[in-house]
């Protein structure tokens, strides 16, 4: 029978056990081994049945057991120590508090998904896991972030397989009362509520749930409340579901509603108001519009409000292809803004201009969320060095006249939260070497370039650690594989073979991620005979564990999964290669440590960063990857292997896949397996162990989320906070008016004449040229511009590479025609082909970059030819 009403019955803990509730409701337990061990000791069997979720555990423990623990002095001492440790963690000074200078009072961090723990399933893939790791690392560092997202009642889908290997989706209903969440309430005890206006006099209301992620509050907006009509209740139903309008409403609630939730939270709790707003991908871009509306209400016009908002906004793009960006029909966006909908004090046509693709190759009738994000942020970044380069090229149309390398998008390479992803066995080995306190700080703060102490760990210990992790993975795989086959309809009598699946002494390869086509799940199947030979080699076999989800609407991705599953079902190889459905955080935490090799073979350069290989590396796994994302940046032969890329312009996709698959097989056959199985005098694989050691000691500190968040604080958050403070109402008006004047007068800016003190086409290294440039400024003043000489090496087409800009200074007074003369020295500081040019850029003390306005004046061809200098 089905219940007509559902209640959540919370356990009543005996008074001595009350601290258990505080420990369970702070998600620090998800990365703090001591707290998890305490909960496990409450009831080991129920802890396992609860999936390691303290809230579920406490809801299932019998009263008799609670009474017994309430009288157990040893347990109460451990409980008191855990509670004191959490209090010290929450209130003590950490890295952020020990920094000098005026750091941001608070940063609001917006993301459509957050992967904190499997007990709070609000993530689909890498973007959410990265956001969760960002919050956890910020907490460890003491950085005052406020996380903002949506609470999806169905989360992301659960995955199973049909008998023939087709992906099946299931959407379990999540009850927030059963999750580690607290409802944000007004002073009178009523739930705090956020309201958005919709067309047709409708409203979208949401309540705010708070997940405490260590020191960081994570605000999650929930529209599934009785005050909403049926359609509005479904806005936060599932992650990345629904049609275009449904998605637009989700992103309006995240951005606009998220800012209102932050304001409400700060009002009710006294938390410092954010000086910086960070939008993790374009989904939350509407937050800038809400902040502009706030400033319009304080008397600023649209342009001044835009400048004030931009100063304190950071935008991170994770998307290396235009197709991966949310784009909406302009009429749909227009209908949801303006006098009869949301943000009535912002002009609809001005809102639309922020997101329109008004550049060559763009579609002017589409509203692009990433374009809006970039236009609303003074600082932007990609998530690896290569992705920063790709992003600058992809969005170069927003800064016409500038080479891609000068587009103001920097990069902060992603990292992973080591306390979450490092296996307890690995942590214990490190703690044994340097002590638990130092090990904890090394993993969370990440302020050293090398972990030299790894050099002192004996080879035998490293090898035994790797084997034990592999053995744990084998047991986990067998359990999950058996459950999967039962879901596919197999009976117990059919599954005896599973007891022989995988071998703890065989080289183990992992491949787990989302399944869009560019990640090439099935590249390993390109030559099945060759793969079979690798799997079944009599002396040097390999075994492969694969997992991944295709988007529910992506039938192409589902076909890739089915193709792989059918191969793994083959009785000849099913003991050596497996596909595990329902990839998520709980599986990943066992999978990364247990794999010797982490395989990644995307189409370069479509992997923005790809952090799964980082998690493997922190556990001593070696990477075998295409040079894409973070691997392109940090690859060394000491750490693993690079799969060559067949990226010639004339290579068709099939030919490219054939070439790269063959390269993958070659590496496995000739180098990877030989290194793993080759034994030295000690009977151990000396070369392999040395690669593991170097991975841990040299790569480990680089891949930490602590390093990543410190970079955000130093390179983006703090400059944004300083810009925010400088951009008061008067400064915002001044900058907006100045920009309007410069844009209107820029057509009159010209480079009329260039001359140099050197007439020959050769010069000696270290010599200096004297440049003299005549420019026309029209109605602008010298203080409105910067005249630069841009010099560097030149390529075969005389394009300047590795350019350096040198400002020139005005001399004398303007000429009769209003022209100015600028002079300055140019040092010839490199040998080989060398060239220069001259340009004029807008200049103002409140600009973050000379490219900010997308305006530049350069010499016309006749002037350039007359003054051109090319030294060879």
Automatic annotation (TrEMBL):
EC number(s) from the headed UniProt entry: 2.4.1.1
Residues annotated as signal peptide: none
InterPro entries listed in its UniProt record: Agluc_phsphrylas, Glyco_trans_35, Glycogen/Maltodextrin_Phosph, Glycogen_phosphorylase_DUF3417, Pyridoxal_P_attach_site
Lineage: superkingdom: Bacteria
Catalytic reaction equation(s): [(1->4)-alpha-D-glucosyl](n) + phosphate = [(1->4)-alpha-D-glucosyl](n-1) + alpha-D-glucose 1-phosphate
Keywords: Allosteric enzyme, Carbohydrate metabolism, Glycosyltransferase, Pyridoxal phosphate, Transferase
SUPFAM superfamilies the record matches: UDP-Glycosyltransferase/glycogen phosphorylase
Residue ranges constituting the DUF3417 domain according to the UniProt record: 13-120
Cofactor(s), by name: pyridoxal 5'-phosphate
Biological function: Phosphorylase is an important allosteric enzyme in carbohydrate metabolism. Enzymes from different sources differ in their regulatory mechanisms and in their natural substrates. However, all known phosphorylases share catalytic and structural properties.
NCBIfam families, per the entry: more_P_ylases
Family, similarity comment: Belongs to the glycogen phosphorylase family.
Name of this chain's protein: glycogen phosphorylase
């Amino acid at each position: 029978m089905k219940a007509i009403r559902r209640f959540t019955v919370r356990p009543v803990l005996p008074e001595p056990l009350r601290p258990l509730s505080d420990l369970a409701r702070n998600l620090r337990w998800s990365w703090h081994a001591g707290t998890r061990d305490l909960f496990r000791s409450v009831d080991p069997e129920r802890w396992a049945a609860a999936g390691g979720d303290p809230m579920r555990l406490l809801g299932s423990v019998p009263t008799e057991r609670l009474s017994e623990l309430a009288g157990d002095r040893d347990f109460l001492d451990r409980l008191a120590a855990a509670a004191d440790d959490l209090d010290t963690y929450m209130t003590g000074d950490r890295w952020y508090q020990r920094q000098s200078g005026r750091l941001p009072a608070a940063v609001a961090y917006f993301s459509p998904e957050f992967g904190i723990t499997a007990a709070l399933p609000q993530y689909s893939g890498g973007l959410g896991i990265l956001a969760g790791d960002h919050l956890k690392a910020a907490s460890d560092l003491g950085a005052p972030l406020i996380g903002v997202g949506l609470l999806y009642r169905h989360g992301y889908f659960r995955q199973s397989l049909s008998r023939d290997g087709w992906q099946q989706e299931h959407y379990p209903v999540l009850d927030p009362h059963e999750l580690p969440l607290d409802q944000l309430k007004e002073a009178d005890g009523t739930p705090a509520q956020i309201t958005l206006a919709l067309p047709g006099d409708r409203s979208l209301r949401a309540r705010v749930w708070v997940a405490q992620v260590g020191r960081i509050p994570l605000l999650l907006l929930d529209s599934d409340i009785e005050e909403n009509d049926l359609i509005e209740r479904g806005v936060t139903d599932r992650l990345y579901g629904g049609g275009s309008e449904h998605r637009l409403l989700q992103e309006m609630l995240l951005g606009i509603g998220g800012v209102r939730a932050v304001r409400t939270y700060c009002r009710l709790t006294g938390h410092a108001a954010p000086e910086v707003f960070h939008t993790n991908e374009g989904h939350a871009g509407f937050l800038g519009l809400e902040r502009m509306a706030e400033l319009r209400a304080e008397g600023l016009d649209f342009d001044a409000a835009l400048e004030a908002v931009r100063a304190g906004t950071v935008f991170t793009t994770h998307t290396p292809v235009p197709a991966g960006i949310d784009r909406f029909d302009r009429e749909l966006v227009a209908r949801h803004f303006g006098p009869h909908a949301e943000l009535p004090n912002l002009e609809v046509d001005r809102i639309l201009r922020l997101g329109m693709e008004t550049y060559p190759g763009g579609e002017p009738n589409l509203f692009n969320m990433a374009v809006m994000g970039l236009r609303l942020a003074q600082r932007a970044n990609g998530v690896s060095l290569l992705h920063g380069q790709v992003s600058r090229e992809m969005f170069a149309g927003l800064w016409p006249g500038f080479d891609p390398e000068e587009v103001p998008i920097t990069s902060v390479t992603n990292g992973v939260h080591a306390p979450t992803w490092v296996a307890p066995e690995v942590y214990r080995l490190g703690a044994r070497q340097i002590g638990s306190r130092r090990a904890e700080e090394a993993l969370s703060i990440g302020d050293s370039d090398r972990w030299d102490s790894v050099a002192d760990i004996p080879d035998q210990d490293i090898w035994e650690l790797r084997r034990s992790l592999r053995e744990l993975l084998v047991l986990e795989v067998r359990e999950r594989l058996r459950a999967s086959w039962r879901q596919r309809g197999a009976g117990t009598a059919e599954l005896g073979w599973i007891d022989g699946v995988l071998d703890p002494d065989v080289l183990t390869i992992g491949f787990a991620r989302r399944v869009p086509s560019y990640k090439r799940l099935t590249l390993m199947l390109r030559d099945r005979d060759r793969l079979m030979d690798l799997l079944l080699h009599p002396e040097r076999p390999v075994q492969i564990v694969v997992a991944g989800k295709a988007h529910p609407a992506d039938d192409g991705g589902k076909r890739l999964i089915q193709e792989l599953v059918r191969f793994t079902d083959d009785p000849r190889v099913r003991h050596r290669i497996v596909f595990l459905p329902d990839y998520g955080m709980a599986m990943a935490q066992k999978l990364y440590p247990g794999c010797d090799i982490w395989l990644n073979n995307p189409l370069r350069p479509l992997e923005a960063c790809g952090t799964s290989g980082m998690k493997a590396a922190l556990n001593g796994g070696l990477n075998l990857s295409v040079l894409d994302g973070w691997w392109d940046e940090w690859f060394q032969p000491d750490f693993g292997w690079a799969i060559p890329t067949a990226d010639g312009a004339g290579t068709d996709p099939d030919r490219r896949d054939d070439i790269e698959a063959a390269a993958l097989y070659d590496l496995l056959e000739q180098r990877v397996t030989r290194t793993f199985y080759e034994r030295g005098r000690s009977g151990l694989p000396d070369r392999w162990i040395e690669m593991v050691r170097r991975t841990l000691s040299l790569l480990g500190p680089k891949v930490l989320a602590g390093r990543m968040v410190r970079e955000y604080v130093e390179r983006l958050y703090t400059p944004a906070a300083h810009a925010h403070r400088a951009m008061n109402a008067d400064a915002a008006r001044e900058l907006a008016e100045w920009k309007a004047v410069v844009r209107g007068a820029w057509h009159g800016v010209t480079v009329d004449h260039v001359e140099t003190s050197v007439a020959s086409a050769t010069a000696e290294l270290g010599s200096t040229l004297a440049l003299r440039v005549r420019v026309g400024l029209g109605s602008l003043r010298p203080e409105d511009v910067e005249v630069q000489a841009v010099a560097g090496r030149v390529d075969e087409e005389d394009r300047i590479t590795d350019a350096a800009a040198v400002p020139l200074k005005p001399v004398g007074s303007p000429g009769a025609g209003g022209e100015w003369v600028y002079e300055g020295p140019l040092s010839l500081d490199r040998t080989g082909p060398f060239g220069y040019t001259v340009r004029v850029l807008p200049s103002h003390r409140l600009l973050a970059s000379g490219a900010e306005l997308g305006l530049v004046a350069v010499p016309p061809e006749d002037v350039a030819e007359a003054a051109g200098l090319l030294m060879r």
